[in-house]
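TA notes, week 10

Several of you asked for a full example with nothing omitted. So below is the full record: structure tokens for the whole chain, then the designed sequence directly under it. When grading your own attempts, check the secondary structure regions first.
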């Protein structure tokens, strides 16, 4: 995924194996610390890797937040899967973990991701700078 230009165009660009290994180590540490994090999502028909998505601790403009994050391989875009996965994750976060005010954010230009946020019922809160790029921040109402 980190070597696919289509996926990474909206995620800060391609990542080296070294950066990907550090990302994986940080993701696994998040699981050990919090008991949840990013899941791998697979096609139930054949086990193929569809993408990664989950809930994770992050910092937005210096403040701690819980983020709904998702990224799918390009072959799986446009089938409603990010929305379906997002629904499952929000229900898990709210009902099982008792989380409120979960955020999602993306580049101002990433219309597909913003559509997912709107379809999930998140509300636009404000424009933010993240990794020095202009982003929009959405938040759940619960
Ligand atoms: C963004 C992403 C997760 C969307 O996944 P997906 O499974 O295709 O999303 P869904 O099908 O559930 O919904 C996407 C919606 O946006 C629309 N859309 C997709 N690309 C669009 C674009 N460029 N402009 C406007 N709308 C767009 C789709 O038509 C759909 O809306 P609809 O159901 O009303 O037709 C996927 O493209 C992706 O993984 N991109 C790379 C990583 C990324 O950007 N992740 C998000 C970072 S916050």
């Amino acid at each position: 995924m980190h070597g696919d230009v289509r996926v990474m165009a909206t995620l800060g660009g391609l990542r080296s194996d070294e950066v990907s290994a550090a990302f994986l180590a940080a993701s696994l540490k998040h699981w050990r610390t919090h008991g949840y994090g990013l899941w791998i999502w697979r096609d139930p028909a054949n086990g193929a890797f569809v993408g990664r998505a989950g809930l994770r601790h992050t910092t937005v403009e210096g403040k701690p937040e819980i983020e709904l994050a998702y990224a799918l391989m390009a072959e799986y875009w446009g089938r409603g899967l990010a929305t379906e996965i997002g629904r499952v994750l929000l229900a898990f976060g709210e009902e099982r973990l008792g989380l409120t005010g979960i955020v999602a954010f993306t580049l101002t230009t990433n219309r597909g991701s913003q559509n997912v946020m709107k379809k999930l019922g998140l509300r636009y809160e404000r424009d933010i700078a993240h990794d020095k790029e202009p982003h929009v921040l959405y938040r759940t109402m619960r």
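The chain has four helices and six strands. Use that as a sanity check on your answer.
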